[in-house]
């Protein structure tokens, strides 16, 4: 099972940004301990210094998404929902997955990034069709920037096989 942990980091280390981590575990019971050990090794710190949070499995993420089922795995990259649109955030990301699941995540990320580009185009068109007040314009600009940052984020290399 694939898991996403949104809020991972090192206690007492302001230099290390919160990181989104994708990893695998065979059962929910060992998720926290497995991730803590993996991050301890990856970051070269004692496991007591590692914190994790916001952990969900691929099924829960898809189930909680407000996008339709035909959105597929791109729903994994959804970070929330606002103004009738999914939110995607460009976060520092660590991927600790098998090759097969890395390809699956890369394909999902590519679909989500394409969706973010489509949302940018729709928001730009929306702002051109009417003159928003300053608050609405600020919100639109923020959303456009977030979607562009996400769409431009370097993820994984292009998958070779489906």
Distance between the first and last residues' Cα: 18 Å
Mean pLDDT: 88
Largest sheet: 5 strands, mixed
Q: How many domains in all?
A: 1
Structural class estimated from helices and strands:
alpha+beta
Radius of gyration: 17 Å
Task: Find the count of extended strands (DSSP E, 2+ residues).
Answer: 7
In DSSP terms (H or I, runs of 4 or more residues), the helix count works out at 4
Q: What portion of residues is helical?
A: 40-55%
Question: In terms of per-residue confidence, which ranges show pLDDT below 50 for 5 or more consecutive residues?
Answer: 158-162
Approximately what portion of the residues adopt beta-strand conformation? 15-25%
Topology:
Layout: E1 2-10, E2 19-24, H1 31-43, E3 50-51, E4 55-57, H2 58-64, E5 78-82, E6 85-88, E7 93-96, H3 99-129, H4 134-152
Parallel strand pairs: 2-7
Antiparallel strand pairs: 1-2, 1-3, 1-4, 5-6
Helix pairs in contact: 3-4
Plain-language structure description:
The two termini are 18 Å apart. Strands 1, 2, 3, 4 and 7 form a 5-stranded mixed beta sheet that branches. A two-stranded antiparallel sheet has the order 5-6. The protein is built from 4 helices and 7 strands. It has helices at residues 31-43, 58-64, 99-129, 134-152; strands at 2-10, 19-24, 50-51, 55-57, 78-82, 85-88, 93-96. α3 runs antiparallel to α4 (134-152). 43% of the residues lie in helices and 20% in strands. The protein is an alpha+beta fold. The radius of gyration is 17 Å and the shape is globular.
